[in-house]
Design goal:
By secondary structure, this protein is α/β, with parallel strands linked by helices. It is built from 11 helices and 6 strands. 41% of the residues are buried. Bound molecules: zinc ion (2 copies).
Length: 245
């Protein structure tokens, strides 16, 4: 499938058109720098640091040599592959913060365009699109799941069903910030449960805003595979460096 085919899907076209209409009614501010006029300005776009081409084929982490990274060689992940669009820094970091905590939900549509382009370049074969779930308490407090705001336009653009209830977070976890890899893994271990009817024999694409160690995607993938999913891929907009300091 090419980008052209995706851009011609009428429902996706309509979705983008609706957001453009809202921009006209309520002129937006850039989610990256606050400048008036656009949801995501050209300066912020040009400041994005894309991930280098040389990444580990499984976890998508930046590697110096080719082939699997040390971590994946020692401990292969349960998912097939995880990829991200850009480094979690600067204006992208600001925009994702606004998308997650400041109810700047219009950013989902515009940033998802990059996820769509990335997905199409990867030629993965998926049946359903699933956002990484958040817990019930966090959902009630925030009112929405930021991963869904990226997953919905992507699902519309690629013509695959969005399954909001395929994964459920069954316990709250503490923030992964400042945790080591082992702590991150145990923090999210068995935190998710998949719906067997929805995922059985399916190739699943999980969407999230940011990945760091990939521990959350890994925990989701494990739950999906235990429920009978055929295989699992993960796509995130940003990739943060694991800060073990
Ligand atoms: Zn900007
Ligand atoms: Zn790896």
């Amino acid at each position: 499938m090419t980008a052209l085919v995706a851009s011609q899907r009428p429902v996706y076209h309509l979705y983008r058109f609706a957001w453009a209409g809202l921009d006209w009614l309520y002129p937006p501010y850039c989610g990256g720098c606050g400048k008036a006029g656009q949801r995501w300005c050209l300066d912020c776009q040009q400041n994005v640091q894309l991930l280098p081409a040389n990444v580990c084929p499984r976890c998508g982490d930046v590697v110096k040599s080719t082939g699997l990274c040390e971590q994946c060689r020692a401990n292969p992940p349960t998912y097939e592959a995880l990829r991200s669009w850009a480094i979690f820094s600067g204006s992208l970091r600001n925009a994702l913060h606004r998308l997650k905590y400041k109810r700047d939900i219009a950013l989902g549509e515009i940033l998802a365009r990059h996820l769509i382009a990335l997905y199409l370049s990867l030629k993965w074969d998926v049946d359903i699109v699933v956002p990484t779930p958040i817990g019930v308490a966090r959902r009630a407090e925030r009112g929405y799941n930021q991963a869904t705001l990226l997953a919905l336009p992507l699902a519309l653009a690629i013509g695959k069903p969005l399954r909001l209830h395929a994964l459920r977070k069954i316990r709250e976890t503490r923030t992964q910030v400042g945790l080591s890899l082992a702590e991150r893994r145990s923090n999210v271990h068995q935190a998710f449960q998949a719906n067997i009817e929805m995922v059985r024999s399916k190739s699943v694409l999980i969407i999230d805003d940011v990945a760091t160690s990939g521990a959350t995607i890994q925990a989701c993938a494990t739950a999906l595979l235990e429920a009978g999913a055929r295989r699992v891929f993960g796509l995130t907009l940003a990739r943060a460096a694991l800060d073990l300091a």
